[in-house]
Every structure is written in structure tokens, then in C-alpha cells.
Amino acid sequence: MNIKVTSGHLKNARVKAVISFLFKEDRKFSPEIEDLDRILDGSLSQLKREQKFDGTDGKLLIVPTFGKGKMDYVILIGAGSKRKADLDKVRRLGNLSIKTAKNLKIDKFLLNAESLSVIKEGEDSIAQALVEGVILGSYRFDKYLSKKDNYKIKELQIRVKRRFKIMAEQSVKTGRILAESQNFTRDIVNEPGNVITPEKLAEIAENLAKEYGFEIKIYDEEEIEKMGMNAYLAVAKGSANPPRFIHIIYRPEKPRKKIALIGKGLTFDSGGLNIKPGDYMRWMKADKSGACAVLGIFRALGELKPDVEVHGIIAAAENMPDGKSYRPDDIIKAKNGVTIEIGNTDAEGRLTLADALSYASELKPDAIIDMATLTGACVVALGEYTAGVMGNDERLIDQIIEISKKTGEWMWPLPFNDMLREHIKAPHADVYNIGTTRYGGAITAGLFLEKFVDKKIPWVHIDIAGPAHNTKGWYYNPKGATGFPVRTITTFLLNQG
Questions:
Q1: What is the C-alpha to C-alpha distance for residues 255 and 23, in angstroms, rounded to an integer?
Q2: pLDDT > 90? residue 89
């Protein structure tokens, strides 16, 4: 898809459709839309009255030009109330625009970012959000379908005021990279467990490293054992597919900071000997979402090249029931020497993360961020669309949540407390891998992870169990993997450099 930023008059746009946006508070057309209305002999005004188009959120006014203009259609989309307008509303409008264009078989269209300029972040940010909404909303995972949807966008034009054009060109480039990297993540998550094994995930990481010149180290099960990663290895032993520990590094010439990213990489989770019921085992291909997000972030880093050193760490494994599987009541020593008593083999992700966090701590980064589809309890607490954020550094937590408000990847803080720490104490080891209470399960999981992080290192844990994958779709997230939180964490890294 060719994406261009333009500042020309709408009436001169050489596209199949001009798409502009109208807020409920807008009583009149803008001068540019009025010009188009005159060219169309008042058709826009007439249809606006007849169809009672008033800027209601998502309402459409589609006007064919019948050869009177340089385009085939002028389309107005309701943007709702100005008071509720933000960048994520812009993404949703971008998504609605691509859906409308697709229904009309339009492959070359213009989006009028200037009509949304009431949003305080500026037209360059608005242009970026529109592009993100279009690319994320046009995503399809149809690799295995015999009959594919062949709709493609040939050209997308984004119109801004002339004074914003140079800034908008860079913002649009960034938005494209972020959205395409998120779609890259979606593709890997959507692949089933018979395709993406730990070895295949390592291969994808190696291909990324080769493409962008990253450093990479892949460790097999013998090397994992030598490094003392017994918690991770215990989970992996029940599968015929061997584990792979992935360490991928983006290292600029003069890094200002060093950040470690960890993604939970369970390529499939059956629950192990505490096997899941069938309904709960469905979609467990998505238990690798955190790892896939790390790989998507690295794709974006390779394109955007910020001045921050980033280490991506993935303990890839499959949790399966077998004669070699670990058992309830087993006691395992993790890489940092902490002993773990197993309460449930379906609480396996935190075991793989325990050794990954210990490994990351030894790198002495300025911060560690892990992202994991860790607990159903987080979904119960916050719903399917919001991630829970925990950690040992309030400033880092606040930074990430503030960015998430602009990216539309919703997050909410969950508090650690000493009373819940009591519920992960084990009678025969240092810590249980599950809480002894059914309440606060997302937090007790976070408190478990805390045991494996160097206390001197700022650390944030993002439980993405709710928003990483969905079975219905919402806004610009189609059914399946969402790619959460690629844009938030990449934006965070861009701000560090």
C-alpha cells in the first residue's frame, strides 16, 4: 500500500473517494466540504438533511459524484462528540473508513485528518492514528482459507494542513511501522500449535535477527539445564517438542539506556497433568502472545532504530501431560536459587518467567518489562479488553499506563500488598506457584514473579490474558490475536532514546 501525506484542496484529490469526518457539534460543513457540495450541486447538503446525518458516532453519509467531481464518492463519517474525541477514537474512525472503502470496492482513497484537528495532540498524531486504524482494521488471517479475500488498498492519502505536512510524514511512517509490527505479532499468535513450536518460534527470531542485524543466542535443553533454569525446564519436559531459550538483542551505537523485555512463550498450554477442560484448552495457542509481542516490538525497533539497547528474552516451551511431566507437590529450584513448591501444573507460565526474569536480572538492565497471558483472574478483575499492570516501581508503571491511554491498549494498575504475599508462602519451599486463596489471583501471580527480579532493578509485569486474544473482535481488533501491547511498549522505548 502506498501512503502519502498531502495538504492539497479536497476538490483536487485524485482518488476514488474522499472521506472526511463530522462531529455532532459541527452545524456547518467546513469550507472544503462546502466546495465539494457546490461541485455536486448541493447533493451533500440535501442528503445530509434527508438522512438526518448529524455527526453521530459511526454514522455514514455516502454520496456518489456521478462524474461531477474528480472522485467517485464523497463520504462523511460521524465522529461523535468533540468532548469524547481522542487518538483512539481516531483509530476507530480509520478502521471504519477502511471497512467502508472495502464494502464499496474502493482501493484508493483520502482521509481528511484536518477535519479532526480539534483533538489536542495535533494533526501529525491524528494522521498517525488514522494510519494505524486503517492498517490494524484491514488485518485478516486467511493463510489457511481456500477462498481468500483479495481486497487490497493501492493508495491511502492523509490530508493535513500545510504547516503540519513534514511532521505528519514522519508520524505516518511511525504509525505504519507500529501497526505492521502489531500485525506481524498477530500472524504468529494466530498460527496453531502444530505450526509454531518452540523451535519454530526460535527460527522466527533468528530470521528477524538476520533481517535487521540483531544479535541473537538460542539455547537448547542441555544448555538450559546447565544454566540452572530448572523451573522452565520442568514445564518443558512433558512435551515431545523441545524448549528453546531465545535472547535477541538490539544494540545501537550509543545507547542511552538498557531495557529487558520478556514475553511468555508457551506455544501451547494443555495444563500439564492438571489438564484443562476442553473449553479452557481452546485458544491456548495464544499463550505465546507475550513472546510474539516481543518479536513484533523487535521488528519495529529494526525499522525505527531508537537510541536504547533492548534485550528480548523468551523461554519458549509447550506444557503437555506426559510420563516426564512435572507433578503437583514437586519442589524445583529456579535459576536464582529460590525453591518452588508446585501447587498446580497449569500455573506453568510463571515458572518459565521465573527463570527468564532471573536471567534478565543478571544483565543489569535499567528496567525489566514482562508481558504474559498469565491469569484468568486478571480477566475476571478487569474484563477482556484491559491488561493488569504490577511491579516494584510506580514511576515505571505510571509511564507505561500513560502511554497506553494514547495507544488505546488499555491498562490498569493492580496493587501489591503484604497480606497477599502471605498466600504464596509454601510449607516445604520458598514459594508456591499458586496462591492459597482464590482471590487476587492476578496479584499473587505477580508477587510470585517478584521473587525472581533483582530488587534494585525497576520492573513491570503486564498481564495481557484478557486483551491478547479475542473470539469476537472489537474496534480495529478482528477476531483472534490483537498484537497487544506492541504499540505501547515500542512507544515507551522510543521515548527512552
A1: 44
A2: yes
350 is known as an active-site residue: yes
Identify whether 485 is preceded by a cis peptide bond (ω within 30 of 0): yes
- Separation of alpha carbons 317 and 320, rounded Å: 10
Query: pTM for this one?
Result: 0.96
52 noted as active-site residue: no
CA-CA distance, 318 to 373, in Å (whole number)?
Answer: 14
pLDDT, mean of residues 181-191: 98
CATH (domain of 64):
3.40.220.10
Structure confidence at residue 497 as a pLDDT band (50, 70, 90): low
Among 276, 305, 333, 421, the one annotated catalytic = 276
- Are 384 and 460 in a shared domain? yes
Q: Is the pLDDT of residue 72 over 90?
A: yes
Which residue reads 492539497 in cell numbers? Answer: 8
Cα–Cα distance measured from residue 77 to residue 275, given in angstroms and rounded to the nearest whole number: 49
> What Rg do the C-alpha atoms of the chain give, in angstroms?
25
Residue 488 lies in domain: 183-496
Same domain, 126 and 220: no
User: Active site residue: 176, 335, 350, 487, which one?
Assistant: 350
116 pLDDT above the threshold of 80: yes
Rounded to whole angstroms, how far apart are CA atoms 91 and 485? 15
